[in-house]
Design goal:
Pfam families: DUF6204 (PF19707). 25% of the residues lie in helices and 32% in strands. With 115 residues, it is of the alpha+beta class. A 4-stranded antiparallel β-sheet has the order 2-3-1-4, covered by helices on one side.
Length: 115
């Protein structure tokens, strides 16, 4: 059995070819997709600024084999993002990802004298 790692992946992209209906829906729902909505989940959380309505990000938690690494986690998250955005009818382009492996992340603890 191979070791599983948990990754946090931020998928960023640009809105592209939005229909007037999609644009209106994004603007109407913008308050639900601001800074306070940013969460890492398996389903992903969408966040964007309404003005200008140009870029977005989606945050995912991906669990996969450690041997597949960050590239696989990024590919899985980008696939999830594409699927979700297409299902919502939103046009997009230029997806790119930033991946953090939570199992190898170094945690700096403050010494007792610095607290």
């Amino acid at each position: 059995m191979s070791e599983q790692h948990t990754y946090r992946v931020i998928v960023r992209g640009t809105w592209d070819g939005l229909t007037e209906e999609a644009r209106a829906r994004l603007l109407a729902e913008a308050a639900d997709h601001g800074m306070t909505s940013m969460r890492f989940t398996q389903e992903g959380s969408l966040s964007y600024e309404p003005s200008p309505l140009k870029h977005f990000s989606m945050r995912y938690v991906v669990v996969c084999d450690a041997q597949d690494g960050e590239e696989m986690a990024a590919a899985i998250a980008e696939d999830r993002a594409e699927t979700a955005l297409r299902a919502l009818g939103y046009g997009f382009c230029g997806l790119r990802s930033t991946v953090t492996d939570l199992d190898t992340m170094k945690i700096n603890r403050k010494s007792a004298s610095r607290r």
